[in-house]
Design a protein that fits this description.
This protein has one domain. It contains one helix and four strands; from the N terminus they run H-E-E-E-E. It has a four-stranded mixed β-sheet with strand order 1-2-3-4, with no helix packed on it. Strand 2 and strand 3 form a beta hairpin. It comes from Candidatus Ornithocaccomicrobium faecavium. This is Cupin domain-containing protein.
């Protein structure tokens, strides 16, 4: 069993390539919460933004 299925994260999307070498992959989304995996180069930054739901991200 891989890490994703161990946590029941069946909504994994394709990796999105954003500016500055940042990538984003939505692992789970439902109702009021979104779980996202973000990768970025050393020293990278994300853009300021808002959304109506809570979000949990981990930087890989």
């Amino acid at each position: 069993m891989n890490k994703i299925s161990a946590f029941g994260l069946g909504d994994v999307t394709a990796v999105e390539h954003l500016e500055g070498g940042v990538t984003r992959k939505i692992l789970k989304y439902g109702g009021k919460l979104m779980l996202v995996e973000v990768t970025m180069p050393k020293g990278g930054t994300g853009s300021a933004h808002k959304h109506p739901h809570e979000q949990i991200s981990y930087i890989a």
